[in-house]
Amino acid sequence: MRRPAMALLIVGLVAGCSTAGSTPSATAPPAPSSPIATPVTATPSPTPAVTSTPSPTPGITAPSLAPGTATKSPAKAAQAHIYWANRGYDLDTNPPTTMGRANIDGTGVNQRFITAGHSMFGLAILGDHLYWTDTGTNSIGRANLDGTGVNQSFISSSGFGITGDGTYLYWADPASGWIGRANLDGTEVNPSFIFAGGMPVSVAVGGNYIYWTDFSSDNRIGRASLDGTGVNPSFIDCSASPGDTMPFAITISGSYIYWTNYVWKVTGGGTIGRAKLDGTGANQSFLGGDLADFNPGWIAIAGGYMYWSEPGDALSPGKGTIERAKLDGTELTRNFIAGAFTPIGLVVGP
Q: 10 in helix, strand or coil?
């Protein structure tokens, strides 16, 4: 049985989660000992006076025009952004932690976009809101996409990774082994929606299923139907992940599942894994197996690129980075965004 050094972080955080915040309403079996849209292009009516057509902005969907609708100058679309949780020894103020933000091209970096909470971890964007988990206060926070309206105690429940499907929020709680669920407005909170077992850290929704990583000695990825049935805690076996790594963060894009194989090291050893949505064709080292100092934490996908957080040295603030590569693994950009503070959670959106 392998013993990843990440246990120093996870076990400490789990201990904190288990002593504060909500307790699952159902009695769970004891958690095992852990070693630790297709774009729609508008076709405006031809206007003879127009002599040039502006180039479309990648990733922006234009609204369809009804027949006979007059052509108007298109409104400037919102810029896409990358958001990350500055978790570690943060910005001379520990606590609280902050959420960083930058334009999708890596410009306009703001390491203090939102300051909230004690230990911000997972991030999600649903509708007009940002959501995050806080492992220090055992709560889920929410704010508007422009950073206003911060509510650190939107939901009282412990969790690490967080996601949603347009109707519900889902979060993973490694302290209890449960996947929680609530309405997007924060009502009908159920911290014991799916018993995942092990130590579920990250969650992702794809189609009619919810997936999660199990950062325990079980070393696996689980899956269940969105209604909570058909639970398969060993959907993908990750025991072949390299070295002391274990599946940490997970995301879905197209017909593939992507996840990070992470270990708490300064010198790397991590990879990004990939498999088909049905769990077949798992490749534990899709990216990073031969890269020095590569240890991806969280992962997000948008516009044909993978983005991931590289926490770096937790004892040296400001050494973390956000990195990027195309979905086929090419055009790898190390230090795409520098100066983050042990970044963990990561999400891409408006």
A: helix
